[in-house]
Amino acid sequence: MPPSVHARSAPQVPIPNQELADPIITVDVQLEAEPYPPANASTFQEQIAVLRQKMSDSDRVTLSASVSTWTEISETYGETVDGKLEYIDGHIILTWPTRIHELMSKFTMAPYKQIETQRPDLQCWYNENIGIPGTTSEPIPDVTLARTSAQIAVEDLHLMIFEWAATQSESSLDDKAKMWFKKPSVRVVVTANVETSQYHPPSAKPAAPTLTYEEFCENTNASALGPVVFENLTFHHEIKSVMMYIYRRDGENYRRKSYNITPGELTEALLARFDKATEALTVATRRAIGSDVFDPCFSEDNNFDLRWETFPARFTSAIKQAAYKRYVKWSNGTFLGHDLDVKRKADDEDNDESDYDANERAVVARVAKRLRS
Question: Beta-strand (E) ranges in the chain?
């Protein structure tokens, strides 16, 4: 039988072991207030659907459950639930990605596709449960760079872990890295942490029909990093910072370095900061998979490149899309939680420069020339 679930509409309370929770911009559901499932919700999926309707703008559901319940749920629904299903410290955590989360994953993993092409024995696994030695936890990193050879033991598969966090403290990120390093094969953990304020849907009610995505963007007061404001109502708070943390195993311990990758106006100073992050990620990856594997995958003409010059415009687009998703939920008076099929202008790699002004295009051209030289 599915677990008995309780939902909360207010106030917000941190979930247990929040440092181990999936790092996505969310409001968490606590196990208090009215009981679930209702009479017409007999399956886990139906219970989750009911919870999603009751939630304001949450992209995470947290359920207290035993290991046996988790086993039953994961085996029955693991391949069909619309979201990421994991088990950490006695809690089933079901998450749905935000636009920013999707962008960070797509953007950061671009050079690793080249490794996959050159080395079929190295693959990027997305949203795969990984058992942590000595615990019952089965967390899911956003991406894992793993070996795929049949001769490799299961405990030696995972080399690099990638996760995208939201408004988490450095200590909580450190604790998450420590958890991953309990797997002896993990050599590097990469985390990007987006710092912003917790979102609460407006209490005011809409006075007009729902706008299209284009109409919404035309009528919002939005800067590159937010906030996104429509009719004096905020649908996305300002992004305060975006930090990348690279953890590298050092014997029984690890070393951590941080890099400020907060997007902004494309200047040489900003691109210099981006270059430092790229260099650090390059070195970390080379050490994780070995120079004999890494070096043949890249060359001067085909280098390890994250295309940082496209990042600011794509990030701004992701913020607008996330804000529009919230606006539609608010305008319709429902919170169903399913992502909207909005037009992804800056998220299309073939049209990245469409949002740049003349000065930004000039900087992009200089960067492209530098990368080709």
Answer: 5-6, 35-36, 60-64, 84-88, 91-95, 122-126, 143-147, 158-166, 188-196, 220-222, 228-230, 233-236, 239-250, 253-260
Domain count along the chain: 2
pLDDT, one tens digit per residue, over 185-242 is 999 999 999 998 878 778 777 777 788 999 999 888 777 898 999 888 899 999 999 9
Q: Which domain holds residue 106?
A: 97-373
Q: Are 75 and 146 contained in the same domain? A: no
Are 218 and 77 in the same domain?
no
- Which token pair is 18? 């929040």
Which of 35, 67, 95 marks a domain boundary?
95
Alpha-carbon distance values, 109 to 85, 125, 314 (Å): 22, 11, 15
Do 55 and 198 belong to one domain? no
CA gap 165, 244 in Å, rounded: 10
Final residue belonging to a domain, choices 46, 61, 95: 95
Same-domain check for residues 251 and 106: yes
CA distance 309 to 4: 48
Percentage of the chain modeled with pLDDT above 70: 71
Q: How many residues does the chain have?
A: 373
Reported pTM: 0.74
Q: How far apart are CA 38 and CA 5, in angstroms?
A: 10
The torsion defined by the Cα of 34, 36, 41 and 42, in degrees rounded to 10, comes to -160
